[in-house]
Specification:
Layout lengths: L6 H28 L21 H4 L5 E2 L1 E3 L2 E4 L9 H10 L12 E5 L2 H4 L6 E5 L8 E4 L5 E5 L7 E6 L2 E7 L5 H11 L8 E6 L23 E5 L22 E4 L5 E5 L12 E5 L4 H8 L3 E6 L2 E11 L1 E4 L5
Protein name: PPIase cyclophilin-type domain-containing protein
Keywords: Membrane, Transmembrane, Transmembrane helix
Organism: Hibiscus sabdariffa (roselle)
Amino acid sequence: MGRRLPDSDVYRFTLALLFSIAAISCFMSYYSFSVSFKGSSDTLSLGSAESSDGNEEENGCCRGIEHLELWGDAVKWGSDFKLNSSKDCCEACKEMCKGDDAPCLCDSWVFCGDKEACGSRFGECWLKKQKDTLDPDRRDSGHMVMWTSGLIFGKGEGIVKLNTVYGAFHVKLLPDCAPHSVAYILELLSLNHCAGCQFYRAESRGNSWDPQGNHIEDASFGPPYALIQGIVEAQGTAFKDIPLEACPTIRRGSIAWVGSGPEFFISLANHNEWRKPYTVFGFVLPEDMEIVEKISQLPTIPDVWSNVKVSVLERPVSLRFIRSKKSP
C-alpha cells in the first residue's frame, strides 16, 4: 500500500508534475512534425532545437559518388593535376563553371583518393566535359573501382521537368549536394514511363505562411504543413535506399526525400522549424511554384497518420520526370 506524502513532499511533487506536463506538451508540438510524414521506416523528425553544423547551401556542397568512374573529354589531365581530396577536385571543377553567360568548361570530375588502390595515381584529379550532362558517360562502377566521381550543373544546366496533368514545372537538380539522389532521378529520365509515380498528399500554406513562404508571426506550424508529398518508384524497377545526403534547410520549393526515398515532398514554405538535416536534391524554379500551389489546393480527404491529422488527395496526381532545356 502506498505511503501518503508529507505536505512539503506533496508541494515538491506537484511542481515536478506541472513541469513534466509542460515539457511533454512542448515535446508533442515538435513531435507532430516528425510523424506527419508517412510511408518510410526512417521517419523524418525535427531533431534537436539546436542548429545543425553549418548550412551547406551557404557553405557550398561538393560531394561525389565513391567507386564510380565517369568518362568524358578531359579538360584537365589528372596525371599533371594532383589534389588532396575529392572536395578539392570538385571545387576545381566548379571554378571552371562560374560564368553567368558562358557554358561550363568543366561539368564532371574524377578523383583517386584511395592510397592503397591508387598507388602512384593517388591524388589525381581529372576534370572533364560530358557530351550530355543528363546522361553522363559512366565507364565503370563497383567496389573494385578506385575512383570517386561527381557532376557539376552550371547556370541553365541540370534542369528537368516534372510533368503532371495540372501542368509541368521545372526542377533544378543539385548533384554536388546529393549525388546519389540525382543519379536516381537521371535514371528515371531514361524510362519510357513512371507508372506508380504520383502525388498522394496535399496541404496548403493555410494561415501559417505567406505567399513567399515566410512563417506568419504567432501562427501555428500546422496542420496544414505546407507541402505536397508523393512517390517516385516506377513499377517494375528495383529501388535502392538512398543514403542521407544532408543538405540545405528546407525552403519554399525544396524537393527532399522522406527518409531514404522513394517517397519525397515539395515544400511550399520556409520550414526553419525543421531542424533535422534532410536530403534536398533539387528545387522548383520560383516561376513554376504556382503549379505546386494548384496541386496543394486540390480536394482532399482527412486522415490520421501516427496521431497527426493530414490531408490525402481524393485522386492521386500522376507525375513523371522528363528532360527540359529551360534556363533558370
